[in-house]
Each structure stands twice: as C-alpha cells, then as structure tokens.
Amino acid sequence: MSLRTDNDNTNMDRRSLFGLVASTTAGAGLALLHNTSPAAAQVFFDPAQYGDQELRVGAVDSVRESVRRAILKNPKLAPSFYQLALMDGLSYDAKTQAFGPDGKVVVSVLSSKKDDDYTKNLKEACLALIEAEKNLRKKTAITIADAVAIGGAEAIESIGGPVLPVQLGRADTPRDGQLPPVPIDLLSGQRSSAEVIQAFQRAGLTEREMVALLGGLLTLEKVEKTRDSEDWRQSTKPKFREPGKMGRMSEFRKLTDEDIAQAELEADPEYMDPDDGWYIADSFGSRDDRFGQRLAKEDINEKNFNKYLKELQTASTAGSKKNKSSSKVVNVSDEYGWTASLILDPNLQTAQTWLNKYSGTNLAYLKDLGVAYNSLTQLGAVYTGGKYENLLNKGTKRKSLNDDGLNLF
What we know:
Distance between the termini: 25 Å
Order of helices and strands: HHHEHHHHHHHHHHHHHHEH
Number of helices: 18
Helix content: 40-55%
C-alpha cells in the first residue's frame, strides 16, 4: 500500500507556492528558507552553529517561551506543535534516505488550501514558530527546522510532561525542490490506521517507537479537550493591592479589576491595558513555572504522565472481557481519540505489549518517549563541520528502542 499525497501539496506550482508562503507570513516564511542543501536530501546538522552555550540556551528558551505563550492562549495548539514535529520527522524515507526533519513541513502546511480546524491550528502553530525565529534574528538566530523540533518538545512539557531532548543544528530547507510526501492531515484522525502505520514504517521507526510517540499525542489531545483560552488570563493577570498594605490578605481589601480599569481610564482616557491579550513568561524561577503555567499541572506531571495510557489499557482489557466471544477490538476512539484505536489495531504485533508496559511503569514510558522523540527528530541526519562530522557520521545503522539488548521480540 502506498501513502496518498495531499493534492494541495503536490500539484501546486513551485513559484506560486513560495509566493503564497511569503504572503501568508508577511514575508517571514520565505526569509527563513535558506539554500543550504539539495532538494530531498538528508538533513544537515551543525551542532556548533549557535556558538557558545549561552547563545544556544538563549535561543532555545526564546522559542520555548513563544510556544508556551501560544499554547496557553490557545490550548488547541498543544497537539498542533507536536504534530508538526512528528510529521517533519515522518517525511524521512529510510530506503531512499530522502527528506527528514528539515522544517519543510511548515511550507506544506502554509501552502495548503484546506480550511478545517485541524489545518487552521497547524497554520497558527507554524506562524508562531516563524514569529519566534524572526524575533530571534535581532539577537542571535535559530533555524525553523530546529524550532519545529523544540516546539514539539515544549508542547509535551507545557502540559506537565517531561523535558524531551532535542539535538540542535539542523539546516533549513532549500527554497525549491519537492515537498515532503507526508500529507498534512496524516495525524488528524481522517486517515486510515494503515496509512499512519505505513508512514512510521517508511521512516524506519519501530512499533515500540510509534506507540511511545502516539502516546504523547493521545495525552496532548486529552488534555487539550479540558482547557479553554481563558486559563492563561486567570493565572497571569497581575494582582493589584492597595498602597501601603503589607499585611495578611485578610487585613486589607484587594482592588478589583473594575477599580483598576476605572482609575486608569480617569487618568488617561486613551489608556489600553498592556496585559490585555498578552502573556509574559518569566525565564527565571523553578523549571516548572519558568515559562508560565502548565496547562494540566493539577492532573498531569512527570510522575503520572502515563495516566491516559493506563486508562486506555484498563478500558481495552475490560472491553475484551465483555467480548470474549468476539475478536472485534473495542472501539475506544470516542473517549481516547483515533490514536487509541491505532494502538489497539490487531494488525500490530507488539503495540498492545508496549501499551501494557507503559501503562504499568511510568518511568519506562518517559524513557522511551524521550529516546523515540530524539530519534525521530534526527532521522536522516548528516553532520557537518569538523569533529562532529568525524565523530557522528559513522555510516552505521540507526539504533532503535528495540536495540536495547533486552531481546524481547
């Protein structure tokens, strides 16, 4: 079976395509596409391209803050940032060694004429990454390909998940050449399970890695459904106090928002509240709050990040007991989404086994999710520049999660 391609992506004239991208992003999208590698080639890495550690950390933190701000303002974008990173990596073809996580998924998304909510959210996530890249030019720089990988990792952390490792140094996609073969609606739930499974297989990923990565998407989508765009306002609105009052809260009256607004209006009729519509993250403080509130910190954290996988495993087991006389897999898509149905697909030989393992031990799941995400975002990597090229371009086969020496399958 061969994957279908998005007609919007494959049939568009290349010149009009990049004209569309430029107009869509107000000139920012086209500027981030540099001629650094031939079309449909491997992903070129230079881990030293951001200079010293301080510049590198500053660039990464700036992107993470932008992603967190976008997610808190619109929780529906949490899965979108992660889906962009997954599709960017899944564009890689292990047989031909073409494509890979080079950021070209942004071009595919912005050039699409689809107008559904899924695509709109992907486009909004792309524009947030482009804006972050554009703002960073004033201080340092970051490639859009790295921003896509960082955005996916930050989406996981924004809901209380672990910090996923991301190797920096990707070169941006060239301006011309073919678009990735992965349809942008691959992870929308509108494609068949067979197509999604084939995309992971074509990229050279194992079922174990697929279950770990899709488990992250399942968790993101479950959390997103419980949040709305007003959450960030409640947590970031500054708390005003009457002047001179330093005692306990019970000892003074807190000024209301109406009090503050009225006072500001009387002082300046043209005053506009600087906090209205803005979220400002503080890069200082603990790791949990340095980029702002986590969407589901009261429900999800690193200690129970396998919560929904555990629920899925319990639901599938209970359903199987009720349907012993039937080989039909229990339909859990209404409760847990299309990813749950895919993980429980009877055509997958080991997916159920890994679901059982991840639901039973959160530590094992966090480990595999981190390793799988790091591997996905480096598919097709070709390292350039001195010692990195000599040390890392060994021409050896990629080590997957199954190469852990356990010989379970």
